[in-house]
Amino acid sequence: MSVNFxxxxxxxxxxxxxxxxxxxxxxxxxxxxxxxxRVNMDVPQVKVLQFQEVxxxxxxxxxxVVGLLLRVTGDISGSIMFILEKxxxxxxxxxxxxxxxxxxxxxxEIAISALKEVGNILAGSYLSALSTLTNLNILPSVPELxxxxxxxxxxxxxxxxxxxxxxxxxxxxxxxxGSTKVVGxxxxxxxxxxxxxxxxxxxxxx
Length: 206
Known about the structure:
The radius of gyration is 16 Å and the shape is globular. The N and C termini lie close together (11 Å). The protein is built from 6 helices and 8 strands. It has helices at residues 10-35, 54-57, 86-97, 109-134, 150-160, 192-201, and strands at residues 40-42, 46-50, 64-74, 78-85, 138-140, 144-149, 167-177, 180-190. It has 206 residues and is of the alpha+beta class. It has one domain (5-201): CheC-like (Chemotaxis protein chec, 3-Layer(aba) Sandwich). A hairpin with a 2-residue loop joins strand 7 (167-177) and strand 8. Strands 1, 2, 3, 4, 5, 6, 7 and 8 form an 8-stranded antiparallel sheet that branches.
């Protein structure tokens, strides 16, 4: 039987959920330091999805989104995607910049740099949590940012990184400041050869 995320039971999903919780806690702390103000983050859901389900989670292939793509290297390899609806990304930029939340955002160099920094913090926080639980050395690359339709964004890792596994770890990430909430979608997409390494390290595979 091939080792992949599809074979996980509830206990193993709980371990992955813990990665989401620890990672979001670390990320919230790092963002608060960066912004010098409190940022709340929650992880409403952690799921294992089929790769082809990703665009459905995002609301369909035609939805305009902002996507951050990072390569993962070290003891496992694969890619990370952090994807926000374009409108939500604008609200997040305004939160980061301390601007009125309904202000129209132009995705200029400053806005893109702020979003990349959030992507860096999130990826670093989640991978650090994963590293701690697995004792694996896992490193993120510098993020690349793209603004496009969801279908186009998620095709990038599939094309760029060759054959990916069928399953991805999905961590829904909710930022809030006051009553304003921004939902982002974080996906860890291991390369096929990395599934076994990752699951063995989590104490899941034999």
